[in-house]
Amino acid sequence: MLRNRLISMFILIPITVSAVFLLSIIQLSIIVSIICLISAWEWGKIMHFPIYIHRTSICIIFGLLCAITMIITFQNYLYFSNWRIFWYIFSSIIIMWWILAFILILSYPGSAIFWRKSNMLQFFFGILTILPFFWGVLTLHQFHNINNNIIGKWCLLYIITLVWINDSSAYVIGKTLGKHKLLKTISPKKTWEGCIGGMLISISMAWLCIQYIPINIINPSIIFICSTIAIIASIIGDLTESMFKRESGVKDSGNLIPGHGGILDRIDSLVAAIPIFTCLILLSQF
Q: Phi/psi of residue 225, each to 5°?
């Protein structure tokens, strides 16, 4: 398992760096939308939606939502200062969803009573989980992307790197030193030692990166605070998917990535960290 994870990481890292810095925003939008469509299909598997009818419908709906989100994001970003109320509302919805997800995690399995038999509610949870990830990637990539400024691209690569460091560190530390279970009812293999160790390493890495990444328009203290909150959010994102998989009796969302399962398994931490980090960075600029 660890060997497969390392191989996948060595393949994914250069692909991710190339996509962030070499692709145009339109090309990146297409790639990320494909990732979201596959994730939507896998979400349907987790929720046990019928494969040919509901899952296809989910992908069509998500495709339309991604297209609408892309248009709105580009339009609003061009007139950022005139659309502050939009950013406030959208950011509030994203933040409130992950707060709710955290509450659902802490109160599981009791919380499952409210959503386990509702396809509509589960589909709505999928939208709140996957679509903001699409928005966050595009918005962060374009952050201050004026006159060939690549601050947004650095920010995007920075938060992706932090999340991957947190995930990998937590996995290794948990395997070697873990003794105390984090949440037995959701993810029996995760431990407090792995969780805290991964956080400490990724937060330390955040502090080091801030010293050298060319982001000179944002206060370093603000970046550090946003990074710390995003790292915590990444853990909530991971546990949220684990909760839904645990309830549905699914081990992996798919098998596309060796050692990781499906696409949704690979981005479960990012779907929370990227939109939360983006929201906080944008709100800090008001």
A: -65, -45
Q: Report the pLDDT value the prediction gives residue 20, as an integer from 0 to 100.
A: 86
Q: How many residues does the chain have?
A: 286
Longest CA–CA separation in the chain, Å: 52
Question: pLDDT tens digit string along 77-121?
Answer: 544 555 567 777 888 899 999 999 999 999 998 888 888 888 788
Model confidence pLDDT, tens digit, residues 7-63: 666 777 788 888 888 888 888 888 998 888 888 888 887 776 666 556 677 777 777
Q: Compute the distance between CA of residue 92 and CA of residue 95 in angstroms, rounded to an integer.
A: 5
Question: At what angle are helices 54-78 and 25-46 packed, to 10 degrees?
Answer: 150
pTM assigned to the model = 0.89
Q: Which tens digit of pLDDT belongs to each residue from 179-215?
A: 889 888 888 888 999 999 999 999 999 998 887 765 5
Quick one: how far is CA 68 from the chain centroid?
20
Task: At 75, list the tokens.
Answer: 């339009």
Task: Give CA 228 to chain center in angstroms.
Answer: 14
